[in-house]
Specification:
Layout (H helix, E strand, L loop, with lengths): L1 H19 L7 H13 L3 H15 L5 H15 L3 H14 L4 H13 L3 H14 L4 H13 L3 H14 L18
Helix pairs in contact: 1-5, 2-3, 4-5, 4-6, 5-6, 6-7, 6-8, 7-8, 8-9
């Protein structure tokens, strides 16, 4: 009985949270500028600086509540509390279902857990919400590699590298004939 009441309360509060999350900040113009900076960066250091600034945009949650949940999940993931991090990212997605970074971070936790199929689903959700999310594209390429889907991985990796040629994941790029670069 108590468990049923708690479940009902959790479902009620989850739907209430989803209704109160504002839209994520629109950083599309700034992201486009940073992608252009990365593409034209003369050195890897310059390219990585642009990449770091992209992370600042993606990690800018829709409101204070979402930011607290995201930050909590990130802290737990860094401490390898993967179950706790996943629970936080689940809460974030329940609260802000249109915020791409919630899906991207949950995908990363699942990638670390080697649950590649679930990670891939979340990466696709993140990319549906933020098509130029370079980190989600790179994560999708790595996830496809984990699933032994090399041809798809190469296609996605090339897409990510077209946006940011300085990604560390470029080491996984192969020539069309399968030879390492």
């Amino acid at each position: 009985m108590i468990r049923a009441c708690l479940t009902a309360l959790a479902l009620t509060s989850t739907s209430a949270l989803a209704q109160s999350c504002p839209p994520a900040p629109d950083h599309s113009e700034r992201l486009a500028q940073l992608i252009a900076e990365a593409q034209s960066a003369p050195t890897e250091m310059d390219g990585r600086l642009a990449s770091n600034k992209m992370w600042d945009l993606w990690a800018d949650a829709p409101d204070e509540t979402a930011q607290e949940i995201l930050d909590s999940g990130l802290r737990k993931r860094r401490a390898f509390d993967l179950l706790g991090a996943r629970a936080d990212f689940d809460r974030l997605i329940d609260y802000c279902p249109d915020y791409a970074e919630g899906y991207n971070q949950r995908a990363f936790v699942n990638f670390i857990r080697q649950d590649y199929e679930i990670a891939l689903q979340d990466l696709d959700r993140a990319l549906n919400r933020s098509p130029n999310h370079v980190a989600a594209l790179a994560g999708k390429a790595l996830t496809l590699i984990g699933l032994k889907r090399q041809d798809e991985a190469q296609t996605v990796l090339r897409q990510a590298l077209s946006l940011n040629p300085w990604l560390a994941e470029r080491q996984f790029l192969t020539e069309p004939d399968g030879q390492e670069l």
